[in-house]
Design a protein that fits this description.
The protein is α+β, with helices and mostly antiparallel strands. The chain has helices at residues 2-24, 82-93, 109-118, 130-133, 136-139, 197-200, and strands at residues 38-41, 52-55, 57-63, 66-73, 99-102, 122-125, 149-151, 156-158, 164-174, 180-188.
Length: 201
């Protein structure tokens, strides 16, 4: 009886989870009272406890403070709404302007590539790390790979311990949404007995 009860409970839970997965699909959550809403972190947090609330991500296109187009999304991250929003503007509102301007929240390789290749426009969007890269603390940190010395002739980097990282191979990676990234992989000649290995890796 105990085993049968456990099996039935498992079967019911499995059906329930399957239904829930079909509802939220690419999202990570949904509200039971409004299944199209996703739990998001709000800027207005009166309780100061980082509580998530069911909400929508509203995107607005403006020019000289006039609202020209809008759309609502269930995705809490802005950079994942840019491509579908630009598609909505193009199909339902007006021809896209020559320059697509947005803040750093929309900066991603996928968005830059889509704006240049698919929409044939020029993106004027700061990438996410731009502000941080301008700080003195970032520029003077020798363990950040962007600060390592690069040799264009040998296509290699030099680490803080003066060891060479030569080009190894190209790598292709896909993110959760299926976007393909092309990466160049570099490998150190050796990290054995390196006194700064823990700081570097």
């Amino acid at each position: 009886k105990k085993a049968l009860k456990a099996f039935r409970e498992f079967s019911d839970r499995k059906k329930k989870y399957k239904q829930q997965y079909q509802i939220f699909k690419e999202r990570n959550s949904f509200s039971k009272i409004d299944i199209d809403a996703t739990f998001m972190k709000m800027k207005e947090d009166h309780m100061m406890n980082g509580q998530l609330k069911p909400a929508y991500n509203v995107q607005i296109a403006t020019n000289n403070q006039y609202v020209l187009a809008y759309d609502t999304f269930s995705n809490p991250t802005d950079f994942k709404t840019m491509i579908p929003f630009l598609t909505t503007i193009k199909e339902s509102y007006f021809e896209l302007p020559n320059y697509i301007v947005a803040d750093a929240g929309y900066g991603s390789e996928e968005n830059y590539q889509a704006i240049l290749d698919d929409f044939e426009r020029t993106p004027l969007i700061t990438y996410t790390m731009y502000q941080k890269e301008q700080t003195k603390k970032y520029k003077q940190n020798p363990f950040i790979t962007n600060n390592w010395k690069y040799n264009e002739l040998t296509d290699s980097y030099t680490c803080p311990n003066n060891r060479e990282l030569s080009f190894r191979n190209y790598s292709t990676r896909n993110d959760k949404q299926g976007f393909t990234k092309q990466l160049k992989m570099y490998e150190c000649e050796t990290c054995i007995d390196c006194p700064v290995r823990s700081l570097c890796t």
